[in-house]
Write a structure and sequence with these properties.
The chain is an all-alpha fold and about 700 residues long. The protein contains 39 helices and no strands. This is Myosin-binding striated muscle assembly central-domain-containing protein. Keywords: Cytoplasm.
C-alpha cells in the first residue's frame, strides 16, 4: 500500500486568460524591474490582446473586461519619453492591441486619461499626456485628433511654451506631439492657427536674450550656466520646432492661395521663417552632428523642406551635405525611420514631373493661371533639365551602392522609394551604364521579384528602370562572366510592362516602348534568350504590332526581327503553314509597306530573316500585294531598305521546288527585273550590288527573263 509521501502531487491548473491578464498588470504596476522583464510582460499582454479579437468571437469573455482605468494608466505611462526606447516600443504595440480589442470603451478610457493629465497641469502630467498623444496619432488618428482639437487645448500650449522657466522635456514632448499631429490635415490647420507664432519665436530665439532679460530684472544677479539654460529653449527644442514649422510651410505651398479681395495688404508684414531658412538650419544641424543616431530631426526637416524646388536645387548643389546624407543612410539601422526619411529626401531631389499630353499641359496651365490670379508662373526648377542635373549630382555623391545595401533589408515602403530613386537616375542615358556597373540591374530584378502583385506601381517602376538601363548597355557586359544573375532573369520584369498599366488614368506607352527596346537588345544575344522571350511574352509582343503609335509598332517589329534570327522560332511562329502563321506573315508584309521608314526598315529586316523558310516565301507569294511590297523595298530611296528588299527577293527566288517557281513568277509579273536594275544603279554599297546580282541570277532559273 502506497504511503502519503508516495502519492504524486496534482499539477496546478493553468491560469485562465483573465487571470493571466490580471497577473501581468500586477507585475507592471509593481515597477522597479529590469527592462527585459518589463518588455516580456508587455509582450505577453500584447499577445493576449491580439488573440482576444478572435477568442471573443467564440463567445468567451474579453480580457478587456478586467482592464480598468488604472490598468490603462499603467500601459500608457510606459509611453513616457523618459522610459527606455525598447520599453516604449513594446508599450506602443500593447496600446495598439488594447485599442483594437477594447473598441469604443478603450477610446473612452484613453480620452479620460488624456484630459485628466492635461487638467492636472504638472510638468510630469504634461510630459506623459503629450508622449501618449504623439505615439497614438499614427495608430488611431481620428480618435487622437478629437483629443487634440478639443476646445482650448491648443490655445493653452502657447503660455506653456512661453513660460519664463523652461522644461526641456515638456517642450520636447509637446513638439513631438505637434510633429505627429501635422500628419493630420485638420490638426495641421489648427497648429498653423494657434502655434505658428510661438514656434517661430522658439526657432528665432536669440541665445543672449535670456541673459539680457535677467540682467534687466536684477543687474546685481550672479548668473550661472544652469539658471541661464533654464530661461532659454535648448537647441534640441529649437530644432524640433523647426521641423514642425517645415511641415506647416510645405502644407502652405501645397494649397494654392486665392487672390485677396478684402482690401489692400498691410504695409508691414509679420516676419516669418521661410522654408529656405529652415532648410539651411536643417543642413547645419546635419553637418554639425557626427552621430547618425542623433540626426533624425534634421533628416525629417529636410524631407519636408526638399519638396520645394528652391530647396531641392540648393541642396543638390551642396556636395558636402549630399555626402553626409549618403553616410547617414549607410549608417542607419535596418528598417529605421532614418532610412525612410533620407530616402524621401533623395526621392524629392531626383523626381521628374509626370509626362503630360498636350491636353494635360493645357489644363494644368489653365489651373495655374486661375490659382495665381491671372499670373502663370511655372517654376523652371521643376523642368527636366534641372532635374537631370540634380540626378547627376546625387549619383556623383555615391548613392547607388548604399541603395543596394539598404534594399536587402528594408521595408516595402523603403524599397518603393529606392526603386523611385533608381527610376529617376535611369532617365538620363549617360548614367545608365554606370548604374549597371554599380549593381542597379541586380537590385531592380530582385526588387521586382520581392514586391507583391498588390504593389503594382513600384513593380512597374522597377521594370521600367531596368528596361532603360538595358537599352543603353551591352547585355553581355551586364550578365556575362561570373555575374550571379542570368540574363533570363530580366525577361519577366520587362515583359510585365509591355501592356500599358490597366489601372492608370491615361495610357502611357513609354514603358511599353522601353520594354520592347530592352527585349530587342536581349534578343540580339543568343537563341536561348530568344526562346525565353517568346515563351514569356509573345502574345503581348504580337499585340503591339497593331499599335497605332508608330514608335511602339516599330519597336515591336524590331523585336520580332531579332526573335526570328533563330530558325526554329521562325518555323514555329511563321512557317508551319497554319492560318495563324500565314496571318502573321501578312501583318509583317503590311508593315513593310508602312509610311514610317523605320517601321518599313524593321519589317523588311524581319522578312529578310523569315523568307529563309519556304513556307513563309509561299505565304508572301500568295498575298495579293506580297511581291509588290517586296519590290517596293528595292525601289526605296534609302539604301538600307533597298538592301533588305534585295535580300528578300534573293531568298524568294532561290526557294525550292514549286514554291520558288511561284515566287519567281509573281516577282517577274510585278517588274522584278526593272526593280533590281534600279536598285543596283542607286546603290553605292558593293554588298547591296552583290545581293542584287544574286537575285537577278535566281530570276533566270526558269528561263523566262
Amino acid at each position: 500500500m502506497a504511503t502519503v509521501a508516495e502519492v504524486p502531487a496534482a499539477a496546478p491548473e493553468p491560469l485562465g486568460r483573465l487571470d493571466q491578464t490580471l497577473l501581468i498588470f500586477a507585475g507592471l504596476m509593481e515597477g522597479g524591474k529590469e527592462d527585459e522583464e518589463t518588455v516580456r510582460e508587455l509582450g505577453e499582454l500584447t499577445r493576449l490582446l491580439h488573440d482576444d479579437v478572435e477568442v471573443t468571437k467564440k463567445g468567451e469573455t474579453s480580457v478587456t473586461t478586467v482592464i480598468d482605468s488604472d490598468c490603462v494608466d499603467t500601459i500608457l505611462c510606459y509611453l513616457d519619453m523618459r522610459q527606455p526606447d525598447i520599453v516604449r516600443a513594446h508599450a506602443a504595440l500593447c496600446t495598439s492591441a488594447y485599442l483594437k480589442a477594447a473598441g469604443e470603451d478603450g477610446g473612452k478610457k484613453l480620452a479620460e486619461f488624456f484630459h485628466e493629465r492635461v487638467r492636472r497641469g504638472t510638468y510630469d502630467d504634461y510630459i506623459v499626456a503629450f508622449c501618449v498623444a504623439a505615439t497614438i496619432f499614427p495608430i488611431v488618428p481620428d480618435l487622437t485628433s478629437e483629443l487634440f482639437l478639443s476646445e482650448g487645448f491648443l490655445a493653452s500650449l502657447g503660455p506653456l511654451m512661453r513660460r519664463k522657466w523652461k522644461s526641456r522635456k515638456v517642450e520636447t514632448a509637446c513638439l513631438e506631439m505637434l510633429n505627429a499631429a501635422c500628419m493630420h490635415s485638420a490638426c495641421r490647420e489648427a497648429v498653423q492657427k494657434y502655434c505658428t507664432e510661438w514656434l517661430e519665436e522658439i526657432v528665432d530665439q536669440d541665445p543672449d536674450d535670456a541673459v539680457k532679460s535677467m540682467h534687466t530684472a536684477d543687474p546685481d544677479m550672479h548668473l550661472q550656466e544652469g539658471s541661464i539654460s533654464m530661461r532659454r529653449h535648448s537647441l534640441q527644442v529649437q530644432n524640433l520646432a523647426a521641423v514642425v514649422l517645415a511641415k506647416l510651410r510645405v502644407s502652405q505651398y501645397a494649397v494654392p492661395s486665392t487672390p485677396a479681395t478684402s482690401g489692400p495688404e498691410p504695409r508691414i508684414q509679420p516676419a516669418t521663417t521661410s522654408i529656405e531658412d529652415l532648410s539651411k538650419r536643417f543642413t547645419k544641424m546635419l553637418l554639425e552632428e557626427e552621430e547618425t543616431e542623433h540626426v533624425q530631426p534634421s533628416i525629417e526637416g529636410l524631407a519636408y523642406a526638399s519638396l520645394q524646388p528652391k530647396v531641392k536645387e540648393s541642396l543638390s548643389k551642396d556636395s558636402k551635405t549630399l555626402k553626409r546624407l549618403v553616410k547617414a543612410l549607410d549608417d542607419a539601422p535596418p528598417r529605421s525611420p532614418l532610412i525612410y526619411g533620407t530616402l524621401s529626401i533623395f526621392a524629392s531631389l531626383t523626381r521628374y514631373r509626370p509626362i503630360e499630353t498636350d491636353e494635360e499641359k493645357r489644363i494644368r496651365q489653365l489651373k495655374a493661371y486661375a490659382n495665381a490670379g491671372g499670373k502663370v508662373q511655372p517654376d523652371p526648377l521643376n523642368e527636366d533639365e534641372h532635374v537631370t542635373a540634380r540626378c547627376k549630382r546625387v549619383f556623383d555623391a555615391g548613392l547607388t551602392p548604399v541603395l543596394i545595401k539598404q534594399s536587402k533589408s528594408g521595408s516595402a515602403a523603403s524599397l518603393a522609394l529606392i526603386i523611385s530613386i533608381i527610376h529617376s537616375l535611369s532617365t538620363p542615358p549617360p548614367l545608365r551604364g554606370q548604374l549597371a556597373q554599380q549593381g542597379a540591374v541586380r537590385l531592380l530584378i530582385a526588387a521586382w521579384a520581392a514586391l507583391p502583385e498588390t504593389e503594382s506601381q513600384p513593380k512597374r517602376a522597377a521594370a521600367q528602370a531596368l528596361a532603360r538601363i538595358l537599352i543603353s548597355t551591352n547585355p553581355v557586359l551586364v550578365f556575362g562572366g561570373t555575374r550571379p544573375i542570368p540574363q533570363s532573369a530580366a525577361i519577366r520584369p520587362l515583359a510585365s510592362i509591355i501592356t500599358p498599366d490597366p489601372t492608370a488614368d491615361r495610357r502611357d506607352l513609354l514603358p511599353t516602348f522601353e520594354s520592347l527596346m530592352a527585349l530587342t537588345n536581349l534578343a540580339s544575344t543568343d537563341d536561348d534568350t530568344r526562346k525565353a522571350i517568346i515563351r514569356t511574352g509573345w502574345d503581348d509582343i504580337e499585340e503591339q504590332l497593331f499599335n497605332a503609335n508608330p514608335r511602339v509598332c516599330t519597336a515591336a517589329v524590331e523585336l520580332v526581327c531579332n526573335l526570328v534570327q533563330d530558325p526554329e522560332q521562325t518555323l514555329a511562329l511563321f512557317g508551319d503553314g497554319t492560318p495563324k502563321s500565314v496571318n502573321r506573315v501578312k501583318v509583317i508584309v503590311a508593315l513593310a509597306d508602312a509610311e514610317d521608314p523605320k517601321t518599313r526598315s524593321a519589317a523588311g529586316g524581319a522578312l529578310a530573316s523569315l523568307t529563309s523558310c519556304d513556307e513563309v516565301v509561299k505565304a508572301v507569294a500568295k498575298l495579293d500585294r506580297g511581291a509588290e511590297v517586296v519590290l517596293g523595298l528595292c525601289r526605296d530611296e534609302r539604301e538600307d531598305l533597298r538592301h533588305r528588299g534585295a535580300v528578300v527577293v534573293r531568298n524568294m527566288v532561290f526557294a525550292e521546288g514549286e514554291v520558288g517557281k511561284m515566287a519567281r513568277k509573281k516577282l517577274l509579273e510585278e517588274g522584278a527585273v526593272e526593280a533590281l536594275m534600279g536598285c543596283a544603279k542607286s546603290s553605292k554599297s558593293q554588298e547591296v550590288v552583290g545581293v542584287v546580282v544574286q537575285a537577278a541570277e535566281g530570276l533566270m532559273k526558269d528561263g523566262e527573263v
